Amino acid sequence: MMVNRNILTLDEFTIQQLRQFPKATGELSSLLRDIGLAAKRVNVEVNKAGLVDILGDAGSVNVQGEDVKKLDVYANNHFMGVLKHGISCAGIGSEELDDFVVFNDEVSNNSKYVVLFDPLDGSGNIDVNVSIGTIFSVYKRVSEKGKPCVKEDFLQPGNRQVAAGYVIYGSSTMLVYATRRGVNGFTLDPSIGEFSLSHPNIQCPEYGMFYSVNHGNFFRYDEKVRRYIDGCQRKTKDTGGPYTQRYIGSMVADVHRNLIKGGIFMYPGTVDKPKGKLRLLYEANPCAFIVEVAGGAATDGVQRILDIQPTELHQRTPLFIGSKGMMDELELYLQAKI
Ligand code: AHM
């Protein structure tokens, strides 16, 4: 197989972007490089998950009351470590940690950004060899530079994100990230160990064939949501046939497929859990930012995800996200206009 060595690597791409802004400090490029490095290390461990004794519960329970797998701990520590030793990040918030972490040394206190991440989304799928991922979100801190970062830096609405992205550890490993200027996807080329630009300027199709939802919860959803799901299974004027149901159980993989091919992903509230399962800061906000930059939309069923003012680090939110045309159609159902 001929491999095109002229394809830009992640580092080359971020530097090329940086060169368009001669006054930029390069902190964001450096941060993305750090994230790329951590992703490569986690990828190595994910790839050998079936071979080594790294599977299974780490014996602890995370702040959401869920079992923590060993790979979650590994990924969390790697992302945190790489960001701590970089030059761009004042502190982090992680889905796996109770509270945010202030790096609190001279370089970090003078850094511009804070990062929030879900180190291993879909971790329930680790031991069955299904795609899992890391999701991240970058904010400019609101606290004074030179001092340790504070909680308010992490509790910013998603519309203040500077960048967001995810890594999918799947049939190939991909890093997709968005800034306000666009969404770009990089595939890990194992022969050189670099993320290479494979999906420039990703645009989410206005319509697609896929709807992704946990059907097992159907009778716990609100009636309007049930009517929409029911509608997905019938003929629609836009596609000429029913949508195809695809639900991986790793949001990052479901959202990625729908971003590329067009579709809608839903994790609605249920009677017993009105706020659903997903976390606003670690899952919903970064995905909403990426999908919106690519031309799609994301709501909690009432308002735009990115406009929600967070009040706590681990708050949950219902999530509806995907192709713009399908989201508009969903809204008609949610407003009881259909
Ligand atoms: P996790 O953080 O424990 O991995 O849970 C998040 C995952 C999402 O990736 C996925 O969409 C969802 O949980 C699936 O939940 P369910 O099994 O309730 O449908």
TrEMBL record:
Primary enzyme class: hydrolase
Q: Record keywords: Membrane included?
A: no
Fructose-1-6-bisphosphatase class I N-terminal domain ranges (all copies): 9-200
Q: How is the cofactor bound?
A: Binds 2 magnesium ions per subunit.
Residues annotated as binding Mg(2+) 1: E95, D118, L120
EC number per UniProt:
3.1.3.11
Please state where this protein is localized.
Cytoplasm
The reaction(s) annotated as catalysed by this protein in its Swiss-Prot or TrEMBL entry are: beta-D-fructose 1,6-bisphosphate + H2O = beta-D-fructose 6-phosphate + phosphate
Q: Which domain of life is it from?
A: Bacteria
Coiled-coil parts of chain: none
Q: What Gene Ontology molecular function terms does this protein carry?
A: fructose 1,6-bisphosphate 1-phosphatase activity; magnesium ion binding
> Can you tell me which residues bind Mg(2+) 2?
D118, D121, E283
The entry's substrate-binding residues are N214, Y247, K277
Fructose-1-6-bisphosphatase class 1 C-terminal domain location is 205-334
Q: How does it assemble?
A: Homotetramer.
NCBIfam families from the xrefs?
PRK09293.1-1, PRK09293.1-3
Q: What protein name is recorded for this chain? A: Fructose-1,6-bisphosphatase class 1
Which source organism? Hydrobacter penzbergensis
* Organismal lineage: Bacteria, Pseudomonadati, Bacteroidota, Chitinophagia, Chitinophagales
